[in-house]
Amino acid sequence: MDLRKADDAVARRIRAMVERVSYLKANDLYFYNLPATDLRGGARSVVNGREMTIFASYSYLGLIGHPRINAAAKAAVDRYGTGTHGVRTLAGSLAIHNELEETIAAFKHREAAVTYSSGYVTNLTVISTLMGRGDYVLSDKINHASIVDGCLMSGAEFRRFRHNDMEDLEHRLQQVPSDSAKLVIADAVFSMDGDIIDLPKLVALCRKYDAWLMIDEAHSTGVLGKTGRGIEEHFDMVGSVDILMGTLSKTIPSVGGYVAVNRDIATYLRHASRGYIFSAALPPAQAAAANEAFKVILDEPWRVEKLNANTRQFITGLKSAGFDTLLTETAIVPVICGDDEKAFTMTRLCQHNDIFVLPVVSPAVPQGLARLRATVIATHEPDEIDHAIEVITRAGKEIGIVD
Fold first, then answer.
1. What is the distance between the alpha carbons of residues 74 and 286, in angstroms, rounded to a whole number?
2. Whether residue 219 lies in the annotated active site
């Protein structure tokens, strides 16, 4: 179809996006999909040909390029090659897949784990496999898009409760028929705001109303808890969540997703979830890298301690400068800019001073809450954090966000 002539809804949506991107590029305000040539785990990287200090990394513990993890990946290629022979159910299961799942289960204090090809696929397939028509799914209003899509795909009655509002959740639970299956699902650490779900109250409500509980730990593994095991360790509530979901592509420097569960749920998912049955197995190198990464986290506890110290320094410095960082207390630090244009301009000013941050704008966040979504990692040094605060503050003053 010739988009120049077409005038249906699809063509209009495409043209609107192309025009928006073209405008941003023409005004030096486009910062997405920039090529990086050096991502070895440190706080600095070469992005789009410029060396910058990275404040946009998901590698919270700085494990990308860790020699033990690299060595494990290389050894897996030597042993298995670069791929598998198919899906896990048929010819695709390797010993390293089983070892990885055993490692995850032990790390999360669960009987079993099931791995998938991505975090997005994990949420999509697990929610839609567990829940169906006639069931109810109750989801925090700002949960990740993969959770929302999994809820919609399940066909269950989909209800949202106000963000981290346990009174509203209880009201929603009271509206669900008592004999209906129900699943409550929330991020542990919210990916745009950086705040933490109120797990103690969430667990209490799920027990009171006989609901299953699923928590997405994409941004809490390696971040929360004394040893980085996540939200249950953070609240000293190990074993309180029915389904712990996580990714292998953030703190864990690989690719894929997983759920840590009891043996019965694992057996059910291996034989019923489409994302497991009909999707190719993780490449051996990626499975081996993830497997070793969980072990490194436990062997190098200084990384979690350093991340916590860096997080406190960054948030305190930005708040002292007058920025609104919402309710974050984690490595995800939103720097509220207001309208989309200010967020893009703030990003340009920061990147031109070699601080790599990225803007998050509508519709990913509500109108008027566009932001820099800065992230802290364990390999930042105190002087690098102070410099980033200085650059962000200078930019904020230039465009009138802070005084």
1. 10
2. yes
- Angle at Cα 105 formed by Cα 102 and Cα 205, nearest 5°? 160
Task: Please tell me the total count of domains within the chain.
Answer: 2
Phi, psi torsion values for 294, nearest 5 degrees: -60, -35
Residue 175 inside a domain? The answer is: yes
Q: Any idea what the CATH number is for the domain that residue 140 is in?
A: 3.40.640.10
Q: What is the pLDDT of residue 45?
A: 85
Asked if residue 8 belongs to a domain, the reply is no
Indicate whether 285 and 311 sit together in one domain.
no
For 92, which DSSP code? I
- 37 and 155 both lie in a single domain: no
Q: Which of 97, 144, 250, 342 is catalytic?
A: 250
- Alpha-carbon span 15 to 254, nearest angstrom: 35
- Give the 3-state secondary structure of residue 133: coil
* Residue 61 tokens, joined: 């513990």
- 177 and 39 inside one domain: no
Residues 143 and 195 in one domain: yes
To the query of whether residue 220 is one of the catalytic residues in this protein, the response is no
From CA 11, how far away is CA 21, in angstroms rounded?
A: 15
Instruction: Indicate if 323 and 391 belong to the same structural domain.
Output: yes
Helix axes 382-398, 340-351, angle to 10 degrees: 130
Tell whether 244 and 308 lie within a shared domain: no
Tens of pLDDT along 365-403? 999 999 999 999 999 999 999 999 999 999 999 999 999
Question: Is residue 12 situated within a structural domain?
Answer: no
Catalytic pick from 182, 219, 234, 380? 219
- For residues 255 and 363, membership in a common domain is answered with no
Residue 384 lies in a domain: yes
- Residue 186: HSE in the Cβ half-sphere, 13 Å Cα cutoff: 28
For the full predicted model, state whether its pTM sits above 0.85: yes
pLDDT in tens, 311-358: 999 999 999 999 999 999 999 999 999 999 999 999 999 999 999 999
Range of the domain at 243: 67-299
Question: What six digits make up the tokens of 301?
Answer: 């506890």
Mark whether 273 is an active-site residue: no
- Dump pLDDT digits (tens) for 7-27: 888 888 898 999 999 999 999
Q: Which of 19, 24, 18, 59 is nearest to 42 (CA)?
A: 59
One-letter amino acid for residue 377 of the chain: I
DSSP assignment letter at 279: S
Given 57, 139, 191, 220, the catalytic residue = 191
Give mean pLDDT, residues 62-68.
95
- Of the three residues 259, 275, 299, the one that is the final residue of a domain is 299
